[in-house]
Structures are given as structure tokens and as C-alpha cells.
Design a protein that fits this description.
Chain B: GO terms for molecular function: iron-sulfur cluster binding; metal ion binding; oxidoreductase activity. The complex is a heterodimer of chains A (350) and B (600). Chain A is of the alpha/beta class. Chain A is built from 12 helices and 13 strands. Chain A has one domain: 3-Layer(aba) Sandwich (Rossmann fold), CATH 3.40.50.970. In chain A, the strands form 3 sheets. Chain A has an 8-stranded mixed sheet with strand order 2-1-3-4-8-7-13-9, with helices on both faces. Chain A has a 3-stranded antiparallel sheet with strand order 10-12-11. In chain A, strands 5-6 form a two-stranded antiparallel ribbon. Chain A starts with 36 loop residues before the first helix and ends with a helix. The relative contact order of chain B is 0.15. Chain B has 21 helices and 25 strands. In chain B, strands 3-2-1-4-17 form a 5-stranded parallel sheet, covered by helices on one side. Chain B starts with 8 loop residues before the first helix and ends in a 13-residue tail after the last strand. The chains are: A alpha/beta (350), B alpha/beta (600). At the A-B interface, helix 1 and helix 8 of A face strand 20, helix 19 and helix 21 of B.
Chain lengths: 350, 600
Amino acid sequence: MTYIRPSFRHPGLPKNDIGFTRADYEGAISTLCAGCGHDSISGAIVQACYEMSLEPHRLAKLSGIGCSSKTPTYFLSHSHGFNSVHGRMPSIATGAYMANRDLVYLGVSGDGDTASIGMGQFVHAIRRNLNMVYIVMNNGCYGLTKGQHSATADAGSKSKDGAINPFQSIDLVGMALELGATFVGRSFSGDKTQLVPLIQAAMSHPGFAFLDVLSPCVTFNNKPESTKSYDYVRAHLEATATIDFVPEKKEITVDYAEGSSKNVKLHDGSRIQLHKLAPNWDPTDRGSAVNRLYEAKSKGEILTGLLYIDQESRDLHELENTVHRPLNSLQETDLNPGAAALENINESFR
Amino acid sequence: MKPTNIQDPEYFHKVVDCQYACPAHTPVPEYIRLIAAERYTAAYMVNWESNVFPGILGRTCDRPCEPACRRGRLEDEEEPVAICRLKRVAADHKGEVKHLMPQGPFASNGKKIALIGGGPASLTVARDLAPLGYEIHLYDEWNKGGGMMRTQIPAFRLPETVLDEEVNYILDMGVHTHFNHYVSSMRDMLDKDYDAIFVGTGAPKGRDLNLPGREEADANIHIGIEWLAGVAFEHIKSVGKKVIVLGGGNTAMDCCRTSRRLGGEAVKVVVRSPFKDMKASPWEIDDAQHEDIPIMNNMPPKEFVVENGKLKGVIFGNVRAEYDENGRRKLIPTGEPDVFIEADDVIIAIGQDNAFPWIERDLGLELGKWDLPVVNKVTFQSTLPHVFFGGDAAFGPENVITAVAHGHQAAISIDLFCQGDDVLTDRPGPTTNLISQKMGIHEWIYDSGVTNDDRYAVPHEDKRKTLANRKVEVELGFDERLGFKEAQRCLNCDVQTVFNTSRCIECDACVDICPTSCITFTKNGEEEELRERLNAPAQNTDQELYVSETLPTLRVMIKDEDVCLHCGLCAERCPTSAWDMQKYLYQVTKAGQTCSNLVE
């Protein structure tokens, strides 16, 4: 019996711009169930960070409680991490981000951690436009407690024990759009060609980037009658567009016919290329995204891809006009401007 | 690409690199696992079935398996598993094995076979045919069997006791031996009414070097393989203090090391080609150098210097090697002055040739290029239908394990021929077996963990002892502890990753977990283009791509077999058992063998 990942890697693994291979972005071996969608999302995160040539120490992984929230152990071993209390990851993220805006913040949560216990935290993180990526690994059930329906389970969906969910589901994507999130996307753990560029775009977005990733629970919620099973999701997928992420330095090589594609320029100079656009949809128009989402839902489709992006996004630090340097680098001279400055302030009130 | 046909017995066979590279296709991982389980007797028998001489080969094999070992491809510094020396572990630590071998007397089938030459090829034919009831007559010019294994491999590499033991297992099967009997006429043999004759006479003629002074100094100039035979049979007991060995092959290494044990103090090996082109196995060169024998390269001999009728030394030129675009080598004189090296004795070990002076040319037995017999490469049949060749006698000098492989195939042909079957079309295919190794969650029948240990070195006997007595074996072999550790380095490449397309739900778990990025799910394409766009580029075209049938998302699973660790993680992470680890046992069918009497 063994469950140890060998340390040998493919000798011909390519290296990224900063000399790292994909293996440098790996984490510990996963203890989730075999075939868990969450592991694929972890794989996509590893791939996205590798392709973006992100130095692992520049990223902080944050999570709450649940199967999803265990995953930060399984990717990016050399990054910072904080595993917080159930549903309280946004608070930790807010604190960390206020203290140091130089890191890339990657929050990982689940449908329970976000749509139930952490709902209050989630909505305020959106409202404040924290500069972070917030991934919900959404499997519609509570995997750690034997698969009860979660708040994102669709009405009528059947779980492994045969129980049919009587309640309406919370659509996190629709809610994020409604609350004014500046980047909203949805994807599927089994579709890395879409998920990887979406994560890259989300990491490049200056503001709260929300990704709802459907991630089948193979153990408790993968029956054919479940709306979050591999088969059901694959059969009902509908993409807004195909998506490519083009980092700042790379040139655009593929040309598509006018009208069928769109280029979205991001704040840091990188671009999102969208092709085969859905009709009546403009990724920069929140209204069209809401409409498109509603249309898809009424047809029983699961709309994936980039749904909405606000290119004018202003994040929390910008809104608050806070100091640019991390707090830990501020010296006494920065923090204590001296008696003369105090005198000036006092004078202004006289 | 088309879906891979895993029903083809050669597909998974090729994945077991060591077994595939072995001329006799010994199931290497199978016996290595048995060694790790301390089942030495069983490990020995797996070997004995395939290669007949585990104790001998465990010391002397050319080991084509080791350069093929997957482990050697994992990292630049990583070395292959010490497959050859593990074989010796099985031989050293085994229990009683004779009762596991076919027990005579065997019921006669009325057929008589003559084997000319008592080396590994002939002995293998005897081993395979005697239990089937053939009356075997073995002819050899020496007083014991073993052929070149006895005459050319020095005792410090292969103790006589080991050789005798394994030769006798075969002779004791009721083989009629005609020792001290040099066959000088094929016509006489043909007249003796054997149902078939097998020729396994090796490549008995050592090449000579016709340079000035050769004849005058004849008393102190020796032909390598003849000299080694003289030492083996104790006709030669000493050599001068200063010895030059000419040649860069394994025979040269045996000659120089033997010289060190017969009184040679300043022994030098002089080779006309560069060091990297030497034919000797690297480990044999290491052993020679360890015994204080300098190897001098790029020096072709020009003249034997003789004074007063006695050899004084050899004059050498200086050359450098140049290679043309086809890789063909030319040795160009550098113009530096010639070098004179003193010598009391010179041993010429520059190659050996086949020689059939005893085969009359009017028998209908055709000899072709380089006086080699015309022999079918599959059946080993000559142009006289009841005469078969094998070992070095068939296609020129090779090695013991190749001779064994020839012997097995020739035995099949002889059996088919004597039973009136077609030697080509009635040949049996290999027997194969594919068995799941799954026992439970994270539990496999095989030890799937991959150790990071570096290759273990075989301990050597103290040099003062070994140089003082030519019969003291240099290598001590692995003890049980080291043998276990080295056995653990084996990746179990015979435990195959078997993919079932209809079970796959395309969850990507295998792709994410695979340590060496072997697995990719992608759109199908042409092989050349596919190899470029896999998760890790598949640049070793000697290794196959395993392609599934088309999946529901219209993609295919492609696995590059090249650096798969056979760790089983793909199967452990697969929620639907679309991946399974299955042990593939490939065995070359032997003469008269049926499925029911195969060794497990």
C-alpha cells in the first residue's frame, strides 16, 4: 500500500519565462476523493500560474472550511496561505489585502462556505471590490458531511441517497452581477481549456474577480439525475464565447472575422480574446450579461465563460486612497509625521 | 492516430524495456519482485526458464537490458537498475532448484539429435529438447561443457563451481556427451543418421596481427582467446612482468586482468581507437583500471621489436580519429614521433572470426559472406534442412545471452522439423497474461512506491587477494540487504497502465496526478504533430503513444509510455477504474511447451 507521489518529474518539462517548470507550482498530494472536480481546478490553478510566470512567493492562498477549502494545500506549496474559519475567508482576505497590496490574492471557497455560512462575508467583499480572485468550487452538496444538498443545488436535483432538493438554488453568478462585481465568470472543472485562461484573466483583473466553477462531487453528487454531475453539466454547457488569455508581452497571433470576436484589454496590458460570441452579449455590458444568463437558465442551459468584466474597475485601495507600500515596510518616520504635522492638523480645526 | 491495439502481444512487451531488450526476453521485473520478496528460488527459476544460466549470466552478461532500463531515462544522473547483478542475487541465495527442473529419465520419442560444440547455444538446445524425449549427443573438443564460458571467461569473473553447476543441470538430463572429441568433418556427422544436427561452435578463431617481427617473436606473442583458454585449462601458468594487450574489447580486458594475476606487473592495454569507441563494456574497463592497468588510446601498433630472437616490445604510431558525415571513422596519423613500449609478452585481442574448416563445401550446406553459413534468421535452419546453427556460429560474434536466445529458437525449429511440421509457419507465438493488480483502495499486489535510491555498487573483494590468485572472484555480489534495496529501484514496468475508454468520465484526475505528465486528453491528430502538443513533449520516438478510442467529448486519451513510473497513481485517482494496473507477463514459448506447463 502506498500513497506517495514519486519525486521524479518528466525530464523534458518546459520552463516558463522565469525558469520554473509546472512542477514548481505543485502542492502536496490531494487527499480528496479520486476523481473530485476540485483536483482538476487545482490543476488549472497550477497551470495558470505556471503560464503566467508568477513567482510563487507573490501569491497568497486563502480559504475557509470544506472540501474546496482544503485544496490550497494541493497547489502552490511555495506560496503564502491562510486557512480560516468557515465562511470567514473574505475577512482574512480583506485584512491581508489592506496590509499588503503587492500580493496576488487567491481565495478558494465552496458552495457551503460561500452561499450559506459565508454569504454575508461574500457580498461585502464584492461590494468593497477587493482586488482578489474568488473561486467557488461548486458541487451543490456538502461533501465533508456525506453529501446533503447545499444552497446552490438546483430544485429537483437528486442526490446519491435519493433525496430530491425541494428548494430554489442560489445562483452565485447572478448574485455577483447584481451586487456589482467587476469580473464575473463561470466554468467547469472538466474544461481546462476554458478554465485556465479564465483564471489568468481573473488574476490580471484589478478588483474582485468572481469565478463560479462547477465541480462534480464524484462520491455524493454524480448521479445522472443530479444537475451537477459530469454527464449533466457536459450535456447542458453553453459558452458565452471561447476564451484566450494573452499576457502583456505576447503578440496576438490568431485573427478572427470581424463581429464574431472581441478583444478586452486589461489594466496590466494583457488581453482577453473572445471568439464565437454568443448573440446579444457584450462582456463589458452588465445588462447584456444578466439577460444572457437569464435566457440560458430559462432554456435549462448552464452558461459558462467570461460573463462580465468592468474595465474601469477601481479596487478597494484606490477607493480608500490608502498607502501604496505594504504596512510592514512602513517605518516610524512614515507612521509618525511629527509634532509639526500634528500642529498643522490642529491648526486646521481652529 | 488509430486507437492502440493492446491485444497485440508486442505492444505491452515493448513497454517492459528491459525484457524487450533482452535477446531471450527474460521477464526481468517479475524476477526482481521475487528477489525483493526473498523468494530467491522462484526468481532463479524464472531466469532459468528464459536464460538457462542465471548464475553465469548474473556475473558475465553483456546486459543489453540495462541501457534500455526506463530508470536511466528519468534524470540525467539516474542510473539503470542493476538488473544483471540482481540475477546473481537469485542464483547466490536460491535453495534447492533441481527438483523444480524437468526430471528424467524422459520417455524417448525415438529421435536423435547431434549438437556440435558445448557452449551456451548447444546447451540451451539440449535443455529444451532433452525433456521432450530426444536423444541428445553433444560433441566438444574440450573435456568439459560450457564452451567459451569456460575457455574465455576468466575464473575471477566466473568461478568454475558456478559454471559446472549450471552446465551440469543440463548434462544431467541424460545428454550423451562426447568430450575431447573435435568434430573434423561435417560429412562424417551427416553420415551418422541424426534426425537433426545443431552447430554451436562459436567464433573460435582469434584474429592475428601481421606486423614486422610477428614471426620472430612468436614465442611471446599470443592470440587472446587461445591464451585465455590455455590459462583456463592451466596449460599457461605465467606471463612476463611487462605485458602489452592489444585491443579494446572485453577479451582485451579479460587478458590484461588475467595477466595481472599470472605475474604481469606492468600490464598495459594499447588501443588504436579513441577511448569512447572502445567495444569493452564500461564496467569491465573500470575493473581493469582499478587493477592498475593503464589504457592507452589512439595508438596503432606498427612493429614488434625483436632483439636476439626475443621480443623486446612494440612500436606504436599516434593517430587521431575523424568522422565523416555518415559517422564512419578514419584514423589520421598526427605526425608525432612513434612510441616504443617494452614488453615481455604481447597478447593480441583484436577480435575473433567464425571458422568452418571442418565443413566440406560439397554437402549442399551453403556458406556465404565472410564464410558464414547461410542461416534463416527466424528458424536458424541452414540450406541443409536438418542442419541448424545458433550462437556465434550463426551470424558472427555476439554474446552468451544471444546464444541462449538462438538456442531456444533453434530447439523449436528442430522439434517442429522432427515432428514433420513447418519450421516457419507452425512456430508458436508468445504466451501472454494480463492480470489486474488491484486489491483495494490504495492497495496493489505489487509495490507501487518509487524509491529515489541511487544505484547500489556491488562490493568487491580486496584487490591484494584477487590479484594474488586468479581463481578468487572479484565481485562479491549483493548480500540480501543490498539486493533488496536494489530490487526496490525497479519501476515494475511490466505492471501496465490499461485504459478503458467506455468507463472514463474525463474528470482529468489522472492528468493532474501523473508525476511525469504522461497523460493528455486532446483532439486526435497525426503522431508527429501530437507528440509536440502533449502535456510534456514526447520526443523519444522509440517509445509508443498509447491512444484510446474517441471519448464522449470527441477527444482521445494519449499516454506517452516513455517515462511512465508505473506508480499506479492514475489508477488510484481514477473514480471509475477506467485506469487499471495490470501485470503483463510475456513469455517466449519454448520447444514443446503448452500453456499448462508454463512456470508461473
